[in-house]
Structure formats: structure tokens, C-alpha cells
Structure prediction request, 576 residues.
Amino acid sequence: MADNTKQAGERVPTVIADGVDIVYRVNGTGAGRGSATAALNRILRRGRAEKAAGVRRVHAVRNVSFVAHRGEAIGLIGTNGSGKSTLLKAVAGLLPVERGRIYTDGQPSLLGVNAALMNDLTGERNVHLGGLAMGMSRAQIKERYQEIVDFSGINDKGDFITLPMRTYSSGMAARLRFSIAAAKDHDVLLVDEALATGDRSFQKRSEERIRELRKHAGTVFLVSHSNKSIRDTCDRVLWLERGELRMDGPTEEVLKEYEKFTAAPTRR
Amino acid sequence: MSQVLHTPPPTTSAPAAGEDDLAALAARHGLSVSGARPSLPEYVRQLWARRHFIGAFATAKLTAQYSQAKLGQVWQVMTPLLNAAVYYFIFGVLMNTKRGVEDYVPFLVTGVFVWTFTQSSIMAGTKAISGNLGLVRALHFPRAALPVSFCLQQLQQLMFSMAALVVILLAFGVPPAASWVLAVPALILQFVFNAGVSLIMARVGSKIPDMAQLMPFLLRTWMYGSGVMFSIHHMTGPDSGLPSWVGPVLQVNPAVVYIDLMRFALIDSFGGGMLPDHVWAMALGWALLAGIGGFIYFWKAEETYGRG
Prediction:
């Protein structure tokens, strides 16, 4: 887990990105929407008439290459919309790449389960549903169930776990979501701004849990706008700006440059 | 490798020899391409491993559906009953389509319920990917789990309808018979057929979200051609004036096959003579064709779901 047990000098790569480009296509922006002929065009002549028919291509990540090794915790930083989350999703295999390749050791997983949960169901059923959605077995969920509920603190103020999630306050719901997501152990763990939920005491518990997860996971990627939590958890940082990899190096070095960049009043 | 290599930005870790060749490095350590489509047997295995999720997701959707209503889960039975009542009022009372059909109400209600099963499965399948992009983009699982799960939800829904149907059958004096057991294989085959078509529509709908707008019209047209409210057997009989090939051609329609099988199983006045020839073979054939074909068609685009 900690470092290479292979031949000396050779570190074990867990994630390799090789010249990765990611492009989103968005239907119905600009002039295309509203005009029926343009829409028809879009369907009939996919590809050729994309631009004319109002399909916008958003080039979110451009030619990014890096090698992540076992035992590393890597922070991803960059201003809003710089492609951090997009890159993370591609590493998780959830977004196809336009060009290049991403190689991974096993199946990296995003720390996130929100989309599988249903507000109309009780917290209890959501714990089961979320666990199954993440690929846990029934037995594993049963084993961890109490742990998840205790960690979320949902039942601290009464028996809320048997109420539908729509009755929860937003903070309660966020805490339960994080607790479910963090219940699974991963080989390569991708964390996207998960630490910003809940009250102070829950945040502390969350950070602790992330560190614990890092111990079990081979490699952790953390997207965050908080330079402090990057400093606390990561030993290496990738800095993305406008989809391009601007810097890749030890945390302090990169953060120093990044702070210089963000401190400047108008940057280009 | 389609892509020529780019020199990676200098990493601080002293790179092992030959690290500039990232593809080779990946190969050396046995790393696999992320988000690549698994082989078909592997895909089937992954899907099977997620069977509990498929079941739980279907049940959760079903339960969530009426959880805000005061009557709650009673609506599971009320909805199909009210549906049947409306159709009975329009087609049985106002338009008097029942001419020539014995046990018209059971005939109609069976048709409506069985058709609704196929219709809602296909509708749900069309939106299975395009309507659940959040889920597709957040978690890793074989995407076929979604359309299959939605079809399973419809099957569960149908179970409630079937319970209501039994009440209706008995109320209208249709005696219970051993042939009711035949409903089980008929439903299984129909489920496989529905799942297959849903998988096809899920892929189409993920590329062209507009399909969700178009499908209700296609499905309604299909319904009117499927003898849900009238008897194709009677309409195309010798005294209808239609050429003799019309009946058999209409009866190849998979919806007709599954609806008539269910009527044959449940209603004793709906005799075997009203069934198309080779009906079980057709039911099986449609199920296999749609099921296997749809699954392969869906799997072929597995790695592209979630883009857009």
C-alpha cells in the first residue's frame, strides 16, 4: 500500500493519462435552437453540420498527460471551469475521451452517490440503494449499515433514518450522502469537493474519514478549492487552467505559483 | 494506438526508464484503458453482479412513485382499475365495440393491462439513459442495468394490475381455470421482449433525446393496431370483407401475440381457435430476437453513454 514492493526504483503506476482531450457537445445553444430546420439538420447530418445546427463543442480538457503512482495523494487545482471535475470523471471512466487514452489499475471510483438516491424514500432504504449502486454486496451493506447511520449523525436528534429524505434539512441530507459514499473502500479514489458539506464537527469527521480512505486506497485524487485541505492531504498537485495542465509537481511548489496566479487582480 | 505520444510534463518523481512511452508503461504494468467497453461475456457477468441493484432500484422507483399521495400504495391498484374503467366507458359503452366479443370487459381489461406493460416499459426505456445522466455520470455500473431495471419496475407494477385483473375476472363471472398458469410463461416472454426493445430505445434515446417526445405517438399508433380494444380475430374474419391474409399479418405483431396469449390463458371464452397459428413459437421468437438483439445493440455503445 505505502510504496513499491516491486524492484527498487520502479514505482507502480495506477493511473496514466496519455494526451487526453475531452470535448462536450451541447445541443440547442445559440442560433440552432428554435429553428426546426436547424434541428432536423442536426439529427440528419450529425457531425458535418454540428456547428451550423447550433451544437456547441466545449473543449474541456486539452492534451493532458500524467502518471499517478500507488500511494500518492494528488490534488487537482484550478479556477472554476478549468476542467478538474471533467478530468476526474474521465479517469473514473464515466466520460469518454475525445483523443488520447487513460489507463487505470482496476476501477477508479468517484466519491459520490447522490444521483442514485431518491428523496421520496426513507434514509434507511437510501443507504441500501446507494450501497448497491456503488457495487457493494448486500452483506457488506448490512455489515456497514450501523456505521453509516452513526457516522452521518442522522439519528442524533431522533429517529430520522426511517423518514423520507425529503423531510431532511439540506445539511442532514448532505451528511447522509457523504456517509453512504464514504462507506466503500476503493483502489483509486476520486474525491470531488466532498469536504464542504455539513457543520464544523461533521467536516472534521469527514476529513478524518478521507484520510482513512486514503490509507486503504492505492491512490487518491482530490479536487478542491481549499488550498488548506489540499496542503493537508496531498503530496503532489496538478494545476489545470483552461483545460491545460499548467503545472505538475510537489504541493508547495505548485500552490505557490497558483496562489500568485489567483492573487493577481486581473489575470489572463 | 491512434495517437502519437506527447511528451508528458516533467514529473517530479524520477521516472523509470522509458516513461515517455506512456502506452508501453501502461502495458508493462497491466493497466487497462479506462472506460473501455468490456467484452460481451464480461458485460453479462457485470450485469449479473449488479442484479441486486437492478431489483432494489426498480422497487425503489415503484415505491417512490406514490409516496406523496394520501392513499399511498393503494394507487398501485387504483390506477390500472381506473384506466380500465375509462376504456370500458369509451369503447364498451359509448362506441359499443363489444359486438361479437364474449366477456368483453375481461377481454378489454386484459388487453389494456398487457399493452400498458409493453408501452410503459418502452417509454421508460427510451428515457432510461437520457433521463438519468446524473446517475450515469456519477457511478460506474453496466448501463444496461438502467433499462432492465425500469422494465422490472413495470413488471412489478403489472403484478398489481394482475391482482386487480383477477378481481375483475371473478366479478364478471370468468371461472378460475388451470390455464391461468399459462400467464406466467407468457409474461416472462413478454418481459424479455420488452426489455430488449427498451434496450434498443435506450440507446436511440441517449443519442436523440427527442425520441421521448415522439414515442407516445408511435406507441399509440401501435396500440390501435394491436387489438387492445377490439378483436382482430373478429374484425378480420371471413365475413369482414377483408382479404384473408390481413388477419395473419396483423397477428404477427408481437403486442398482439402477447395480449392474445394472456387472454387465452385467463378467459375461458377466448378459445385456442382465436389465437394466431404458432403463437408460442412467435412469442418465443419475438422475445429472443428483441432480447438478444437489443442487448447486443445496447452493449455496442456502452462506452459512449453519458456524453453530451
In short: Residues 1-8 of chain A have pLDDT under 50 and may be disordered. The radius of gyration of chain A is 21 Å.
